[in-house]
Automatic annotation (TrEMBL):
Organism: Ananas comosus var. bracteatus (red pineapple)
Protein name: protein-serine/threonine phosphatase
Lineage summary: Eukaryota, Viridiplantae, Streptophyta, Embryophyta, Tracheophyta
One Pfam family per UniProt: dsrm
Segments for region (Disordered): 400-467, 573-600
Compositional bias of kind Polar residues: 587-600
Biased amino acid composition, Basic and acidic residues: 418-434
GO molecular function terms noted in the UniProt entry: RNA binding; RNA polymerase II CTD heptapeptide repeat phosphatase activity
Main subcellular location: nucleus
Listed EC numbers: 3.1.3.16
Keyword set includes Hydrolase: yes
SMART domains, per the entry: DSRM
Subcellular location, record wording: Nucleus
Amino acid sequence: MSRSGISSKVFHGGNFLGEAEVYPAKDQGFTFPSNEIRINYLSPPSERCPPLSVLQTISPFSVRCKVLAKSPIDQSLHRLYLSCFQEFKSAIVVIGSEELHLVAMPSKIEKVPCFWCCSVQAGLYASCLGLLNLRCLAIVFDLDETLIVANTMKSFEDRIEALSRRIDGEEDPVRVSGMSAELKRYVEDKDLLKQYIETNTVVDNGRVVNVQNEQVLPVHGSQEGGIVRPVIRLPERNVVLTRINPEVRDTSVFVRLRPAWEDLRSYLTAKGRKSTIIKEYHEKSSKKSLQHVFQDGACHPKMAMVIDDRLQVWDDKDQPRVHVVPAYTPYYAPQAEMASPVPVLCVARNVACNVRGGFFKEFDENLLRKIFEISYEDEIVNLTYAPDVGDYLISEDTNIASNNNKDAPMSEGMSGSEVERRLNRPVHLGDERQIQFQAPSTRPADGEISLPRAPAGNKNLQSEVGPPTVTQSSLFVGVLQEIGRRCGSKVEFRSTVANNKNLHFSVEVLFSTEKIGIGMGRTREEAQIQAAENALRNLASSYLSFIAPTTGSLQKDLDKCLLGNENGFLRDAPNPVKDELSGREAQPSTSGQLSQSNNSDRLSLTLRGIKELCFEGQDIVFRDQAPISDSLSKGEYHLQAELGGQVLGRGVGLSKEEAKLQAAEMALKTLKETVNPQV
């Protein structure tokens, strides 16, 4: 800050409050107009977010100057300072499209009111403060081929004609069959749209369905009231027929909604959560940008997550904030939505929960704590990094290039530009529940100075090693298959429904139709790796319990045998049982007691580690578990470790403590992999 201050008068409205010295930030020749600080209004108060935490989130390192009262006897200025300091408010000076926020600061030295002055886009502070107070983030949904596929009579006719030409030129009967089925779906939906246009009714499975007049929410920022449209909804088909201009039947549109959209929408708007429809602003030749989407100050890009079927259409700085979903293709591949046991939009909801959890964990535990330590005399660079939605998303484009494949699907609905002209983009400001988090990366956010910082946790997985490697998956799967080959048993991997909100995929391992392992993860491959590893451990435990009353070095030998440097295949080990038995004969009789003591210590350390990774109020619970195989269950204890009703680990042993230890260690490993996939 400049050492020499600029004398300025302070006003609130037309009331003179006192005089102050203004100290511009380094390398900034900032002055208030006419050397007068004219406060227009105060920001809304907050119960949990001091103004500096909000400003650092949406306009980082934007301190323009420091303001220090000249005299302690200016009671009006002192009252303003106390009101702002105690109620987490800021005094706002509006200059054009910019708001200058006077933030009341504590001081280690000064005995007079002192402020930091921060700059932010007009209107943005109040919008984002509301979100931060409610612990909400914005979700921006793409429409065409992400949430819906929409067609007019003209687009139906164009697609039917194009598909018919492809069928006529195709000789492969399999391809002809597939395209003919696709054509049939287009024709059926076109016929329904024609009925709607001509009669305002449709016949669905012999039932006549009439239009219902529905009032549409006005677009955010629009002065027009909501219009009323004639709408037919066929929820069993995930179909809506509507009219863009209620007076013009030629503007009728047939809309296919992606399965689970109603569930997602109900979730996002539950408990009075806000739902706003806005226009998306971007030129055809440019990429999509959150800066343009929120140009009216409804939200900051750092606090918004995008759900889209394409990544590259977004501006580079917004791509880390995009959760990419497979394109919705109800005509080309209607069965694709049923391929996964968890609907695509439910996975997107779970991802949004994870992002919210990570964002506000960083905000509460790091940013707020550091903000409360900042005083008037500190330098601006002492401010800490604020969270960004992009820090908690692993962005990947799921689209597969067609590579001149003539079977690649054509666009199934109106073109993007046509959808943009006709329909508006919804943005749901959802208050999701916290589930899990990924620690932030060091990527600088919009408009902020790129400063080195220490992440408040572990590094983002993507910045270091990427997703789990195929090599690791192949290793465990190869070992299991080799075991199955030697035992004459079939090993199968089966996808199941994941009932854990923060882990989207679940895989079971079947050994001769018997389930021996289960795994969950954010990707199918991650779930498969965990399932295979758990299956190996369960097989190892059952094997040990069957052939020997204690483990010890035999476990180490078996681990070497299963996971040695033999390209993932089993190798013939020297007689481990004999080595173990001969070793055990030389052990003193107190070895069992020593083992029990070691197990007890290990269990205590493991439970402590689990406690550190759990959210407040969560406790690990151990329950009896049915044995994997009756033939191996005599004299054994089978336990499973549960957290919030979710099984995180299973254990088997000759003592209950041994089984509990094994289950706890597996649960700890699962939690570590959930919080930090590099562990």
